[in-house]
Design a protein that fits this description.
Layout (H helix, E strand, L loop, with lengths): L1 H9 L43 H15 L18 E2 L27 E6 L5 H10 L10 E2 L2 E2 L8 E12 L5 E12 L11 E6 L4
Antiparallel strand pairs: 1-4, 2-3, 2-7, 5-6
Length: 210
């Protein structure tokens, strides 16, 4: 159906990197209107808005270059991109937001956790913590803050090694057809900066589309 097709394409709007020469039709069903990028390739989310002017495309490509290039440890001759660490999740934006698109959860214990991160927090119990929760939306874990950073620069240890264990949940529909669900269980190994708070709350987050 045309509506379903155009809504899918409209999901690629305002996505920050190569140039799309195909012009969006003046079709009100396109959710992004004139900004919609008509591209179905793996680079679709890396394209500038279709109606972006030539002058503004220069700014887009400059910004996208910073998005793709890795940051380095300071001091460095590359002063515009130094300052990495001491702890970090990835050394580039695109390392998590692959081609400006959505990341993916690790599919096994050995798979990379690069485009998925782990949020940590503790319950708000004191008046101060409740006020903090109202203001910032989170009460950080005392030793690790609100996000686990598994990577670090030379001479520094990453905070922890996140991983998923998967368990299968088997079931059956009313018509007799069977199914298997896969349940991820989040684990943190190699806690290098002390034990977690006994009431720690953890959740894994996949990097969203930019």
């Amino acid at each position: 159906m045309k509506l379903a097709k155009t809504l899918l394409l409209g999901g690629l709007i305002l996505s920050p990197v190569a140039h799309s020469t195909e012009q969006a039709p003046t079709d009100k069903q396109l959710s992004g209107g004139a900004t919609t990028v008509l591209d179905k390739s793996s680079n679709a989310f890396s394209l500038p808005a279709n109606n972006l002017s030539i002058l503004r495309r220069d700014n887009f490509f400059i910004g996208n270059a910073f998005f793709k290039q890795p940051w380095v440890i300071a001091p460095s001759s590359t002063s515009a991109r130094d300052g990495l660490g001491p702890l970090f999740n990835s050394n580039s934006c695109q390392g998590c937001h692959v081609k400006d698109g959505k990341g993916h959860p690790p599919l096994s214990r050995e798979d990379s956790f690069l485009s998925t991160l782990v949020r940590v927090s503790i319950p708000a119990e004191t008046a101060e913590q409740k006020a903090q929760l109202t203001t910032t939306g989170v009460v950080p874990e005392p030793s690790y803050g609100d996000q686990i950073q598994p990577n670090a620069i030379l001479g520094v240890k990453g905070e922890a090694t996140p991983r998923f264990d998967y368990t299968e949940i088997k079931g059956q529909f009313k018509d007799g057809e069977t199914y298997t669900l896969v349940k991820p269980i989040l684990k943190l190994d190699n806690l290098n900066y002390g034990a977690l708070h006994p009431q720690v709350q953890m959740s894994a987050r996949v990097a969203p589309v930019m």
